Amino acid sequence: MRKLASIRQIAEIKPHTNADALELAIVDGWQCVVKKGEVRPGDFVVYFEVDSVLPINPLFEFLRKSCYVKKDWLPAGEGFRLKTIKLRGEISQGLVLPLETVFPTATGLPVLGQDVTEILGVVKWDPPMPAQLQGLARGVFPSFIQKTDQERIQNVWEEVKEKYDDVTFEVTIKLDGSSCTYYHNEGDVGVCSRNLNLKLEGNDNNSFVKFAVKNNILEALKAVGDNIAIQGELIGPGIQGNREKLNDIDFFVFDVYLINDQRHATPAERMFILEKIKALTGVEFKHVPILGETTLERFGTIEEILNYAEGRSLNNEIREGVVFKSVVVIEGRVPSFKVISNKFLLNEK
């Protein structure tokens, strides 16, 4: 589960370029605008990530003017939503509060990295799916397939630079749609949204299922017989504002999960499997755009890799970002992470 609120440590304080009373606090790879002198390098703080919704609480009341939201689907019906914003010309992502401000009566040493999301009643900004993506559930997302979420670069920058600096990564464009998984496992086939395994019968209006039926995807996976999951992004009319301006719903593969090996395929393995399906069944999958291959050695700072994420998408001048996937298996897995475009986040509604 994502740590929406956690105990972190201030890595650096930078001057604000356009406000004498403000500073830039660096927490791992995140930059937050704070009041001058509120925190110092080395201080323990509570960091609230972007996409968090903070509860109505006197502690967060200062956010009311800029962050208050009221939505029926929120657990409490209202709260304070954190987004990527610019404050006096500087990017600010999330919220930093001194540890003693949030936990004034706490005793003992703070635990760096401790998840305090539930303690503070923080929830994720996660609007309900549009009607065409909702459907009858067969069950929860299958335990034999790993979900498709990659960690954001801001949370893992130091780690990936240290461990994978000279590793070659495939870089693909991250399309803004809805995550979808089609699988075959020991004769059973299925269709999944991000969190649910969907029923195949009675879901005639569900876009995930309709696309599978229309394009004979499940029959193809069963005919090939490999225990695999094809994972990708469903994009088009009615999904995330259809930023790519497609006329019809379409599916773009970004991963293949090897169920028997319990890991994602390497880029080469992924392409081999997609070609195999096409050769044996005639079913051809579209793939998210591939920008090429690179190593992290080319990026000296996190700002450089964030700038690299900027650029054009399929049909949109502003893309959501990029995803890095190792071209080799390392310690039984294919390391990956995502770099979301700040320009995209600033334009997000």
Enumerate how many helices there are, as a single number.
8
CATH fold annotation of the largest domain: D-amino Acid Aminotransferase, Chain A, domain 1
- Helical content band: 10-25%
Query: Any idea of the CATH class of the largest domain?
Result: Alpha Beta
Description:
This protein is α+β, with helices and mostly antiparallel strands. It has 2 domains: 5-124, OB fold (Dihydrolipoamide Acetyltransferase, E2P) (Beta Barrel), CATH 2.40.50; 131-347, 2-Layer Sandwich (D-amino Acid Aminotransferase, Chain A, domain 1). Helix content is 18%, strand content 34%. The protein has helices at residues 64-67, 99-102, 153-164, 207-214, 217-224, 267-281, 302-308, 342-347, and strands spanning 5-15, 22-27, 30-35, 44-48, 52-54, 68-70, 78-81, 84-87, 90-93, 95-98, 123-124, 137-140, 168-174, 178-185, 188-192, 196-198, 228-235, 250-258, 263-264, 286-287, 290-295, 321-326, 336-340. The strands form 5 sheets. Strands 12, 14, 15, 16, 17, 18, 19 and 20 form an 8-stranded mixed sheet that branches. Strands 3-2-1-4-10 form a 5-stranded antiparallel sheet. The chain is globular and about 65 Å long. 34% of the residues are buried.
Layout of strands and helices, then pairs:
Layout: E1 5-15, E2 22-27, E3 30-35, E4 44-48, E5 52-54, H1 64-67, E6 68-70, E7 78-81, E8 84-87, E9 90-93, E10 95-98, H2 99-102, E11 123-124, E12 137-140, H3 153-164, E13 168-174, E14 178-185, E15 188-192, E16 196-198, H4 207-214, H5 217-224, E17 228-235, E18 250-258, E19 263-264, H6 267-281, E20 286-287, E21 290-295, H7 302-308, E22 321-326, E23 336-340, H8 342-347
Parallel strand pairs: 18-20
Antiparallel strand pairs: 1-2, 1-4, 2-3, 4-10, 5-7, 5-11, 6-7, 8-9, 12-16, 13-21, 13-22, 14-15, 14-17, 15-16, 17-18, 18-19, 22-23
Helix pairs in contact: 5-6
